[in-house]
# Entry
Amino acid sequence: MLIREAVADDWPRIWPFWHRIVAAGETYTWDPDTPEEAARALWMAPAKRVYVVEDDDQAVVASAYLTPNYGGPAAGIANAGFMVDPDRGGRGYGRALAEHVLAAAEAAGYRGMVFNAVVETNPAVKLWTSFGFTILGTVPEAYDHPRRGRVGLHIMYKAL
# Structure
């Protein structure tokens, strides 16, 4: 497994799983019908440091971005987004990418990381709590999950 900063040519290898995950409507709050160019602008924005994970066959199997959550005086708090190809889950790619991005955030001088809205039914909640993230609060019934009805959104935080 190789984790590296993404280049523009990686987007066509990220888009298939990005689209699949967002279109499923189970974990991300982005519009399930987000067109590709809008998705690229969301994920690959110049202010974001984007990473990819390549497997042993050099296939891109996961991606993440790191960016300030706020601007100005609060720019020392990071935000990140993570996606693992659903066909590649359970192989440690997400955990390895999380470790990498947390280390990169700390090395960049961020003092903490916040996830603004994590669907409470998302299996990644368990991963983030294992890294020491705490749930600061939950907005009840804020997310219309396609299979579970209205579920809450967590706000999660970790000091770095």
